[in-house]
Structure formats: C-alpha cells, structure tokens
Amino acid sequence: MRKHLAIGVGLVAVTLAIVGPPFVALSVRPFEPPLRVGMTRREAIDVLKQQGRGPTIFEVRQTRVFMKPDCLGGQCEAVLYFNWNEDCLTKWEIAHLLRTRPPWLDTALKWVGL
Q1: Is the model's pTM score more than 0.85?
Q2: Is pLDDT of 18 > 60?
Q3: CA dihedral 52, 56, 62, 67 (to 10 degrees)
Q4: For residue 101, which phi and psi values (nearest 5 degrees)?
Q5: Beta strands in the chain, from DSSP E residues, in sequence order
C-alpha cells in the first residue's frame, strides 16, 4: 500500500514539475501602467516617471514614453493620447517593441567575442 501511495505522490510531483512552469510563465500578466482617463498630461507623465520609466517624447497630440527593458530584454512603449483642448488623457496603448538582448547578456557575449 505504501508503495502505491509513493508512486502516486511521485507521479503528481512529476506532473506538477512538467506542467507548472509553463502555466506560471503563461499566466503572468503584461505590464499595464496605472493610468486613468481624464488625467492631465503632467499627472500621467509623473505617474510613469515614479515607476522609473525612460525618457519621454512629446508630439502634437500624443506622448510616447519608452519603458525600461525587462530582464529578458523585452521593451515596450506607452503611447498616451491627449485632448489638448482640455489637457486630459483620452486613451493609451502599450506597443511592444522588437526584442533586444538584455545589457548583462550583451556584455557577457561581447566579452567572449560573440
């Protein structure tokens, strides 16, 4: 009886080890900035800068905020659309940029000559 119980527990452990990591990796939610419709331009940019986001480019009706890359080198850009007559945020979009190598990996590969 103990042998059957040990085999059952072992099978459950192996199943969780195989199925668990992909399930966790796929269930991670993408970054969503804490923005609200109706925020002023200055409030929206201050919220993103408090999170340590990168430089900002101002255009006529939209503002682009480049996000810092994650540990795997994935970058995104938040495009904020404003109603310039009322100076309020109307909508925003998150655009994922092409994946680049993270700085730590790039440095290591350059060090070994790749």
Answers
A1: no
A2: yes
A3: -40
A4: -75, 140
A5: 56-58, 62-66, 76-83, 88-96
